[in-house]
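Problem: given the chain below (679 residues), write out its structure.
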Amino acid sequence: MEKAHSMEKEHGSVPLSLRDIKLTDSFWKNEMDLVRREVIPYQWEALNDRVEGAAPSFCMRNFRVAGKLNREKKEKGTAFEEPKYTFRGFEALPEDPEHLEDQFYGFVFQDSDFSKWVEAVAYSLAQYPDPELEKTADEAIDVVCAAQQEDGYLDTYYIINGRDKTFSNLRDHHELYCFGHLTEGAVAYYEATGKDKLLKAARRFADYIAAHFGEEEGKCRGYPGHEIAEMALARLYRATGERKYLELSRFFVDERGKQPCYFDREHPEAVKKGGEKELRYQYHQAHLPVREQKEAVGHAVRAVYLYSGMADVAQLTGDESLYRACETLWNNIVNEKMYITGGVGGTHVGEAFSYSYDLPNDTAYAETCASIGLVFFARRMLQIRPDSRYADVMERALYNGILSGMALDGKSFFYVNPLEVSPQACHKDERKFHVKPVRQKWFGCACCPPNLARLLSSIGSYAYTENADTLFVHLYVGSVLTKKVEGQDADVCIESGFPWNGNVKIRVRAKGSRFKLALRIPDWCGSYTVKGAETAGTRTMDGYLYVEKDWEEEELIELCFPMEVRLMMANDNVREDIGRVAVTRGPVVYCLEEADNGKDLHLVSVEAASEPVVRDETVCQVPVKTIELSGSRQEKTEGQGLYRPWSAACKKPVRLKFIPYYMWANRGENEMQVWTRAE
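Solution.
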């Protein structure tokens, strides 16, 4: 299959193939192994509704119904045995499971759960061949492809419920979203295994969509309600060289938000009399053309998926105005709307970005998928321009707001990632019902667990990108990798102590080759040292140290990024955090948990000038660095009424123990907080 001659080969960089990376990192390899051993098999059981006590998925069942597989097998006496469904939490489900046949159940986007699962499988297989897992994936792909219609259409919601409504409600239904995830999974599986059955299915669906949408007369000028098709089409173009996929991606990006708004044609009831010119569809990022959007608004996951697709199109077409729009939106997110953990989406109302500097801790939404989407956006911005501020955010989200979404055993998950939790409030306060004090086995809307699996399985492609003469190291992840330099292999071995220490060793074997290493200087590091680059040409630019030379048989470069404990303040406009500090060390954000510090965490203060003590400990059998700081606890007054005259609070000194934020809630239900009063 012909590969695309895309502009990123000439401008910017591209991710290294996972086949050229062997992860050796003690931290991330553990996460990848956890995904491979526990999460992928567990999620396969969940997609087939075989996890006791978890909400049913119906995902694979819908594909079997759409492909009429069970009906055919019943005639042969080999029908798939339906699980014993429990319907708690789903509306309008029959009491009698016999009525399940030939009906669609679950959310309209349920197909995408398979696609994210098979994408995670692909990344895992690329690095850890597993014949049994590959066989399972091949059989699942057979089921999915059996559902595809003769014209290429592949979305079980409308295949089962009737094709007469195809693409009739782009705003609310998710055909293009499901197509996007299908395409991402299909390309990944082809690249990992060389098998193209799912890729051919995705291309047939893409061809069907391309024939339906566009600027030409008679075509639909709509675009996805939930974005992801934009970056998926860009990826399909990169994989196949078929220009129409890139053009379709650009059409979806350029058409979005034009007036009159396409969604008004679908939903005239949304236009109030006299309000025809009012901005609508901020939730869908369709209120303005994308180049006119200055603020990240609406559903946070949809937004960062859109911005990622915009960055793809900007890089592949050399569109400077689109890149500037991406940069404007990026700056708005990270300077005004991002939690210190890398979480985005401050309100549960619409799972959305709130107004600038509104970052509540106890009602935060900070969906796991939104942080994952922010990482997608960050890497694409890095591909256009290697600026460390993008990688800094990527690192922050990965070590904090994303990892917190999965338990240490890989068997339960957070959809929402708050920065302060009182379990009593979660159970009794309706405003906080979206916040869970413990991780859940699965979700009816199960976007986050498989999203985590596919990201963690492909971490190497976020750590490194390359162009013809430069290897960019964005994340210090222990790896053995190969870079092509003028037809020759340059072998690079990276040893990293991240996230617990900042010592990095880079061994290069590339005799007779000349290329550059671009090494990121983290924003949390005030100073650093480098050894072994004395005979090289070096310079710093945009937060990267560039090391260029004619390499010898084997050379060693050593970096040291000191990891000091830092107490961070929020911008004065973040009202919730005035007078409070967050404890960080290196890339890791820390928190207080009741398990270490007792109840009523709101009564403790940290002594800002105290000398921190960093300890090597284990939490739930996982080795980590914990931090102790001096502080005080305000004594609780009892029996003095609801209010009383002010008096100096009586305090007693305490030692406060902080653990990495991503590890909270692995020791049962208890209080947690990131931001603590300072004195």
